[in-house]
Each structure stands twice: as structure tokens, then as C-alpha cells.
């Protein structure tokens, strides 16, 4: 696949176990549930396939770790939203791929 943005969408779709189209506004953790080890896998693939640099990236700022996911899922079922982790969209990750390095979402 020669288009890196299409390739990134396919990676996200695979990790999120989604077959339907996903808009660029879909949030990686908050909408698609990609966190913990799965988020780490996504970032590793971005680095390996597209050469993205993640200098200065703070994982905990955007994604829960593997141990937090269960409790955050329970809280979500009870109607609570996770405000501790900042949102990152598919569209933002596409911009990161184009720039070749991480930058915080606006």
C-alpha cells in the first residue's frame, strides 16, 4: 500500500477491530477504545512503517495503561467520561505521519 494515510487508516481499523469506515474525527481512545498495549502497538507501527519520531510524547497524557482500561470501561458503562486522557483523532495521527514527528493536538 503506497499511500501512508490509507495505510494508517488500515492499521487503526485492524487494531480497533472495525470494518466500517471511520471518520478522521474519530478519537483513538475515547471513540475506538484503543488504549494500553493496543495504543502502544499503534504508535510502534507508525514509527516502524512511516518513520514517525515520538520525541517528547507522553503516553499517559493521551492513553490509559493496560491496568487502567478495565476500570475506565466500568466507569464508561456507568455514564462517566474519561477526562484524564486528552483526545487524539485519526486525523491528527495522519498529520503526525505527514510531518514525520509527534506534535500535540491543538
Topology:
Elements: H1 4-16, H2 36-50, H3 59-62, H4 66-77, H5 90-99
Summarize this structure as a short list of keywords or feature phrases:
0% strand, 51% helix, 106 residues, mainly alpha, 5 helices
How is this structure best described in words?
By secondary structure, the protein is mainly α. It contains 5 helices and no strands. The protein is globular and about 40 Å long. It starts with a helix and ends in a 7-residue tail after the last helix.
Based on helices, strands and strand pairing, what is the structural class?
mainly alpha
Mean pLDDT: 91
Order of helices and strands: HHHHH
Largest sheet: none
Quickly count the helices. 5
Low-confidence stretches: none
What percent of the residues sit in helical stretches (DSSP H or I)? Answer: 40-55%
Net shape = globular
Give me the count of strands. 0
Radius of gyration: 13 Å
Distance between the termini: 29 Å
Strand percent estimate: under 5%
Summarize the structure.
The chain is mostly helical. It is built from five helices and no strands. Helix 1 runs antiparallel to helix 2 and helix 1 (4-16) crosses helix 5.
Amino acid at each position: 500500500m503506497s499511500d501512508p494515510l490509507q495505510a494508517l487508516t488500515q492499521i487503526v481499523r485492524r487494531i480497533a477491530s472495525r470494518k466500517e469506515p471511520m471518520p478522521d474525527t474519530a478519537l483513538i481512545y475515547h471513540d475506538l477504545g484503543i488504549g494500553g498495549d493496543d495504543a502502544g502497538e499503534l504508535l510502534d507501527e507508525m514509527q516502524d512503517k512511516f518513520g514517525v519520531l515520538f520525541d517528547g510524547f507522553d503516553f499517559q497524557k493521551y492513553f490509559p495503561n493496560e491496568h487502567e482500561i478495565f476500570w475506565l470501561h466500568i466507569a464508561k458503562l456507568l455514564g462517566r467520561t474519561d477526562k484524564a486522557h486528552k483526545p487524539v483523532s485519526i486525523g491528527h495521527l495522519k498529520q503526525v505521519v505527514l510531518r514525520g514527528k509527534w506534535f500535540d493536538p491543538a
